[in-house]
Automatic annotation (TrEMBL):
InterPro entries: Metal_cation-efflux_comp (IPR052527), Phopholipid_MeTrfase (IPR007318). It comes from the Bacteria. GO terms for molecular function: methyltransferase activity. The keyword Cell inner membrane does not apply. It is a multi-pass membrane protein. GO terms for biological process: methylation. Keywords: Membrane, Methyltransferase, Transferase, Transmembrane, Transmembrane helix. Pfam families: PEMT. It is found in: Endomembrane system. This is Methyltransferase.
Amino acid sequence: MLSALGDRLRAWGFSWEGLRDNRHGEWWVLGQMALITAHWLPPTPPPSALGFHWPLALRLLGGVTFLIGVVVGAQGALNLGDSLSPLPEPIPGAPLVTEGAYARCRHPLYQSLLLCSLGVAIALGSLLHLGLLLALATLLSLKARREERRLCLLHPGYAEAMASTPAIVPFVPGLDWRVCSDPA
């Protein structure tokens, strides 16, 4: 099992050298993993410490939002198939995917993570988790922009997809841009 994991990591482009110099965006993945893992922290401060009783309706809404995020992520992962990679560096020779979840937004896996994070923040009523959501949104926006610079270079049709498809969350400043950024 460990050798299969090592093979998969190498196929995605992970290497010890990349962990040292971020050649394929390894640091973005590490930051993303740290923020996702931090969602396991308890609510801080808990709503009760602020004098609130967090309503069941909000806890349920958070749970439903989290589940929607899981569904969006599953659809995005299935649509990508063998092109799936956690790194912002596209897999060499991978086709450009613009159908399914990728017809609604260019980064449905990032959208999925944000929906899950939002769900946790709503369910727990935690200022800490709201901060984690904002930090994750910032990190994923920057990671997506790095990824898109490479996609613009590798796929001539990507600029057209960018012009007509929202980036991560439609109409949200910082999470929706519709032009190729400078590939430098």
